Each structure stands twice: as C-alpha cells, then as structure tokens.
Amino acid sequence: MSKHINSSRRQFLQHSMLGAAAAAFPGLLLAGNGKMNRTATPGFIADVEIEFAAQAAQVNIFNSGPATQVQKFIATLRKGPPNTLTQLPGNYLGPILNFQQGQKVRVFFNNNLKEPSIIHWHGLHVPQHSDGHPMYSINTGEQFVYEFEVLNRAGTSFYHSHSHNLTAEQVYRGLAGLIVVNDGDEAKLELPGGEYDLPLVIQDRSFDSQNQLQYLHAMPERIMGFLGSNILVNGKPNAEFSVKSRAYRFRAANGSNSRIYKLGWEDGTPLTAIGTDAGLLAKPETRPYIMLAPGERVDLWLDFSGRKAGSQLTLYSLPYSGVMPGMYDRMHKDGGGMGMMHSRLPQGGKFPIAVFKVSEKVSDSPKLPEKLVSFQRLTERDVDNAANPLPIAISMQHMKPLLNGKSFAMDRVMDFEKVALGSIKKIKIFHDHDSAGQHSGGMGMMGGMQHGDNEHNGESGDHKMGGMGGMGGMGGMGGMGGMGGGMMMEMAHPIHLHGQQYQILSRNAAKVKPADYATVKDGFIDSGWKDTVLVMPGETVEIVKPFQDYKGLFLYHCHNLEHEDLGMMRQFYIG
Ligand code: C2O
Ligand code: CU
Q: Which H helix or E strand runs over 263?
C-alpha cells in the first residue's frame, strides 16, 4: 500500500525541488549578500496570479471616532477565476483567497511597509521557497514571488506575516487573512455555500481612546502572550450576523496572538464541526464546546433551523482554567496586581464573541451529511520511528520559552531535526520543565530518546534555570512563592508545524490537574487533519506527520505569537 498522502502530486514538484536544493544551506546563502528574493519562473504556468502588497492603511474599525492605523495586505487579481479574491470592505484583514485544489498559484508580494515582512500560507503544503520562512523576509520596496500548486484538499487556512521578531506585532496590526480551498470531494457533499459559507476570524485587540491599536512589549506581556480587551470578528467589534433559519458553514479561525477561545452557545446547544485546521473531518463531531487556540481553525456547521424569526443566539467564549502559569490564575482570583496584566478580559474568562440574529424564517435547509470525506487514519504502524519519536520539548529558560532546549536560529538544524523526504514520523510534544530546571537547556530527555545534539549553541550553557531567578524581571508580581523551577511558568502552548497536515495519535493528561483539564478536554477535536495543536501544561501529545513532496527547511513553533517571536521556534530539514 502506498503511504503517499497527497494524491495530486505533479511534475511541478520535480521542478520546485531545484529551488529547495539551492536553499538547502540557508546559512551560506545568508552569509552572501542576502539576496533571496525570488522572481517568476518562466516554466511555471500559473492558473492564478495575484499581486499582493503589505502597506500602512487607515480603516474604520469603529462606527464613530477616528480611523485606525493598521498594516494591511491588499491584493489584486491578475489572472484566474474572478471569485479568487473576496474583499472584506473597511477591514484590516486581507481578502479571502479562494483556491481550488490543483491550481497553480503565483503571488507577487510587494513590501510597502517601513520594515521587513514576508507572508506564510499557514495550512497550505507548499515548497520551502514559497512557505514564508523568515529567511526570505524582504525589505521596503522589494518584491518576492511565490509559486506553488495547491496540493491541499478542501479546508480553511490562514495567511499571515512571518518575519522573525516582527510576526506578533505585524499580525496584530492586521497582516493576516483567510484561505479557502475547495475540491471535488467537498463539492459532492453540497455543504452550505455562497452567502451561507462565511468567515469567523476571531481576534482580540486593545485600543486607546483615539481608536488606535495598543500593543505592549513589556516582558510579562510577552512571556504570557498579548491579551487584548476587545473581541473582533472579521475585523469588527460587537459582531452580529443576520442569519436565516437554516444551516450555515462558518469558518472559524483564531487569529489572535495568544488568546485561546472555548467556543460555545449561550444556551448550551452543542456545536458541530465538519473540519479542523486545513481539512474536512471524516464525519461531523458534535461537542458541548470547542477549544480554538491561536493558529487553529474549525469549520463549524451552525444550524439555525427551527429558530424563530426575531430570535437571537450568542456565541461565547466559555470559562476554563489551567492554561496560564499558576501565578496568573492566582492573581486573577485575588484581583491583586492585575494592572500590569493588561486585559479587561482574562485568559479563560467568559465573554461574548458574536450575536446571531435570525432575521428570516425559511423552510429549506441542507442536511448535515453523516459522512464527510475519507482519508487514511494514520497510526503507529505508518511511522518508521514508533519507539523513537522525534521530540518537541517545551521548556522555559531565563524568561525565554524554548523548543528542544533551543531558541530559533535561522541557519541551525540539530541532527534529529533532519528528516528523510517521504518519511512519516511520530512526534512527541511534551513539557520538559524538570530537566530545564536541573540540566542545561532541557536536553536531558533527548539522550534518553537517542537523539544527539551535535550543535554548538551558546544558549545551552551551564546556567541553572532557576524559576525564581528568571522571574527577577517581573518584580512587583507578588504571591508567586511556593512554586519551584520551571513548573511555575508552565502554560499551554499551541504547537504549529509547517508543511503537511498531521494527525493526533494520543494525548496523555496524567500530569494535568484534573479540575483544569475537565474545563477544556471535551473541546479538542483530534479525529482530523491538524497543523496546530494545543498542548496543556503537563500534557503530552503524540502526532503522526508525513514529510512528503518537498525538501528543505520547515518551521515548527509555538503559535502564541509572542512566544514565537521570543524564539520558541525551530525547524526541520527535510532531505
Ligand atoms: Cu501561522 Cu509559522 O505560522
Ligand atoms: Cu508558547
């Protein structure tokens, strides 16, 4: 049986590997004149060509008061089906990109900002050169050309800027948008389409009295992740949808920097998902609530059938606990010292996201299909390293969140981060705070897993982690005594891997506080394809990921964007 996951592999891949080979040693390229800006490849015949720009803009987010200064992706279609771009008027979000599986896409990206930028197509499986790796960041006035074939099956993805150290603030200021991929299998399902297929991009922002975006760079902020005081849906506050009494498809995406949502209806009606991240599920999943961490998407089937015209229903983020470091929850309960914790909406608090007003009674509605799409369910038998999973160890050292004991370095790959092209690997994502506290760099577990670290890296010196020592910069936050080592800073992290979608093999929550876990566990949908997974403090998540089609450097990182910019990012070299 073929273990190849994508059925639509084309000749094109051969061609794109040349690009990957040239960039196989980015360190060398970076040491040159840094000219990595791609130009159009004559042999690549694009079905779709889009001219993209990142630029400063003013948009009316609020109905009254001054316009807001934002950074915005603007796009014009040069070639391709006229419905390729759906513009969201009066918005900082870029247009929705509507792609068909199999299309060849060329994007001319122009950076009109006063700072470097690059776009990553989060969820799409594209060659290294078109994946928005930060090494490709371009400067003001420069152009970068992306070329890729849409290999993905139908699903929802999310493009955003990915320039290292600038990602969090650029996404915050607006540089993001939704990608919709359609395919033939999906078309057969006759899911709600057109006006019944809508985006639900959820973000939190803070504004000053002049409607200007506030972003804070102070250390407690960055280490916890930025939490805004206003919830925006599709770029607007106080979101309201006028709906008919029938079924809708809402493509929810968490485009927040660090806020985690627990989506649920006010009246306790369960929620039904038909897709997770970039893929449709095998069958719908109905849950009392659905967790949505930064970078995650969930395709919701929201059915208003049977509801009265004039009635309304509010989608909430429901309360949960345990994702933040112990001191955060504790300080919230005490209500003390929260001034510096910045948000009127605490992580895990209850607040409304959007109101759905049933404006019209209709008699007809599509029926929820019992089965959606079929795909191979990956198991341990499909991997070549069942007993020796690739590690993604989460730890914290000197107020820096790390992966595998290291910070991101543009041109570094550790031995065990080199993966054979075409292989399918088991990957174990776990918290390694114990060894971070006792050893240097949290690499203690690595030896046990037979992964050598041949990289010389000054960061894993012999400093003692010392949770308390590391907290020196957070003076003024009282009430933290009694928690030792890295455990004190243990928090939930949404772990995102670039490249192909993966599947969740298992979760082990034995070390998670049961009372906390009970508030989130029913909201994890692990039966489909994923590219981002929320890992609770103490939790271990095993995934199966194919590394097919493209050679080169593919990032893995925390999608808490403050963490990502703090260096909680590494990369695989597929070769
Ligand atoms: Cu959505 Cu590497 O990011
Ligand atoms: Cu994180």
A: strand 261-265
For residue 154, give both structure tokens.
């139908």
Three-class HEC string of 327-378: HHHHHHHHCCCHHHHCCCCCCCCCEEEEEEEEEECCCCCCCCCCCCCCCCCC
**Residue 523: both structure tokens together:** 């909201």
State whether the beta carbon of 129 lies less than 6 angstroms from ligand 1: no
Question: What ligand 1 atom has the least distance to the C-alpha of 158?
Answer: 1
**Fold held by 34-188:** Immunoglobulin-like (2.60.40)
Tell whether pTM > 0.85.
yes
Is the distance from the beta carbon of residue 133 to the nearest atom of ligand 1 less than 6 Å?
no
Strand partners, 237: 232
Neighbours of ion ligand 2 (CB under 5 A): 493, 558, 560, 563
Same fold, 34-188 and 390-433+484-574: yes
Q: Say which CATH topology domain 390-433+484-574 has.
A: Immunoglobulin-like (2.60.40)
Question: Which segments of 357-499 does DSSP mark as H helices, in order?
Answer: 433-438, 444-448, 467-470
Burial class of residue 486, CB neighbours in 10 A (0-12, 13-18, 19+): buried
User: CA–CA separation, 356 vs 320, rounded Å?
Assistant: 23
Furthest-apart CA pair in the chain: how many Å?
69
Note whether 362 and 248 are within 8 A (CB).
Answer: no
Per-residue confidence (pLDDT) for residue 488, from 0 to 100: 67
CA of residue 496 to ligand 1 center, whole Å: 7
Structural tokens at position 379: 């198991």
Quick check: CB of 181 below 6 Å from ligand 1?
no
| Alpha helices, H only, 280-396 | 326-334
Candidates 193, 480, 434; CA nearest to 331 is 480
Look at residue 476 in the predicted model and tell me its pLDDT: 32
Residues 6+ apart with CB under 8 A from 365: 245, 246, 247, 303, 305
Q: Which of 86, 106, 119 is nearest to 197 (CA)?
A: 86
Closest CA to 410 of 525, 567, 253, 285: 567
Q: What is the mean pLDDT of each run of 10 residues along the chain (575 residues)?
A: 43 36 43 61 96 98 96 98 96 98 98 98 97 96 97 98 97 98 98 98 97 88 91 98 98 98 97 98 98 98 96 98 83 51 82 98 96 97 98 92 95 95 98 56 33 37 30 32 53 97 98 96 98 97 98 98 97 97
Residue ranges per structural domain of the chain: 34-188, 390-433+484-574
Do the beta carbons of residue 161 and residue 55 sit within 8 Å? Answer: no
